[in-house]
Amino acid sequence: MDKNRNIVIGVDIGTTSTKAVAFGERGKVVSSHAIDYPIVQPHPGWAEQDPDVIFSAVIKSVSAAMKKANIFPHQVKALGFSAAMHSLIALDESGRPLTRCIIWADNRSVMQSERLLKEMNGLAIYKRTGTPIHPMSPLPKLLWMKEEMPELFDKVHKFVSIKEYVLYQLYSQYVVDYSIASATGLFRLDTLDWDIDGLNLLGITRNHLSEPVPTTYMLRGMKKEWAEQMTLDPDIPVIVGASDGVLANVGVGAVLPGEAAITIGTSGAVRTISPVQKTDEKGRTFCYALTENHWVIGGPTNNGGILLRWLRDEFGSPEREVAKKLGIDPYDLLIQYAQNVPAGSEGLLFLPFLSGERAPYWNANARGTFFGISLHHKREHFIRAVMEGVCMSVFSVALAIRDLTGPLSEIRVSGGFAKSPFWRQMLSDMMGKELLVPETHEASALGAAVLALYALGEIHSLETVKEWIHITSHHTPNKNNTSLYLELFYMYERLYHRLKDEFDVIASFQRKG
Ligand code: ADP
């Protein structure tokens, strides 16, 4: 192992695990370690995690990554953080949690979100803050806490996110980077400061929140106890970093205007970087900070790979059995069947809103629909229609982004769906765009490491990362399929709008049980 100071550690505090990745020259992975933790659901629709379990995962994952590659403290140049957005923890005066960490997936504040939107000028709040009004974000969660737990709410000393909690343990300082702050619904994009109107609405002051700092802000002088446990020098520069979403764009190399990163894992997201802030008149997209000169415009969809998983689990038992015998992945078998059907699934269209939808419609009541079913449709048509439906939902988000930023010329994809060349080609055909598959496994951790190097002045532009990322495959759209898909996509949009009222009715039926 090289004895030079050439290691940068990216720590990604995610929803299912914290991953520490040690990167060497040109973003080469030297070692990595992930520690998983659970989501607690004390009531239906709630989603919480234990902040101390996550803090301990940060310490242990860094120390394990150091140990695995036998890295000495003096070899580490810097450490940079990435974290999931939208988390909320209430702390007392001594910095101890009064609540668990309420995460983005928590839906308890549905009613507060609806009121914010309809009665409290939610669109104006979104336009000031860049955060769509949705139960995922801290603003409605705080309103819920104020209304439903007033005694606790009045006792709170600080409201923080998970990254602020970790940094407070390490440095006894309450700081929040512009990126995590810009996803709270309480942070003004124009002044890069807390939104006084939002604070007044909640009856809190800026003292209840951390000090906002640039994402390149550097901390030094870590508490010895934790530095020792991570086998780091306490004076190592620690860069506060940004959110996992915006750093994932850096980590796949989608950093220039017109370049988009599309991730389809369980859910999905489309994001592009703009040099200036942009919000949408119709409230369809988010605008989150990466640096003061890089703004990430994008949208999340609920309906990504979870739909193929649903099909596999609920209807795919024959495929699961055959795949088991052949020793192959059932997804590969399902997708092989889908390939027997032409583009467009011979007139079977699928609206994929099984778990409501976030961008671009932001409609929790939207539901799934197969449209056009006829006797000639076999199970492979349904498989293909589901895969096409996922691509259409991603395409609809990309179109909303395009309205703000201009055309997207290059698409970089990642997430579980990208394992399938057929599904990737389908997305390229649907969007009518070149599609690249970058070879990155831990995009957000790499993004955090790159941002740390940028903060230290070791690289002069985030673009440098593009030279480090190897492209493993490349898809060019099939023009015939693109024009067919475009027609079907217009029908998809029309169907959504025509069914919107009926979705409200069926969703209320489902709520009544
Ligand atoms: P997460 O978002 O939970 O981290 P992943 O990125 O692993 O999850 O994505 C999981 C999804 O990826 C699955 O629901 C499935 O739709 C899709 N997927 C997984 N394996 C394959 C495969 N071999 N081919 C196509 N799609 C796959």
Automatic annotation (TrEMBL):
PROSITE patterns (UniProt xref): FGGY_KINASES_1, FGGY_KINASES_2
Pfam families recorded: FGGY_C, FGGY_N
GO-annotated molecular function: gluconokinase activity
EC number(s) per entry: 2.7.1.12
Segments forming domain Carbohydrate kinase FGGY C-terminal: 260-456
PANTHER family membership: GLUCONOKINASE, SUGAR KINASE
NCBIfam families: gntK_FGGY
Name of the molecule in the record: Gluconokinase
Organism encoding this protein: [Anoxybacillus] calidus
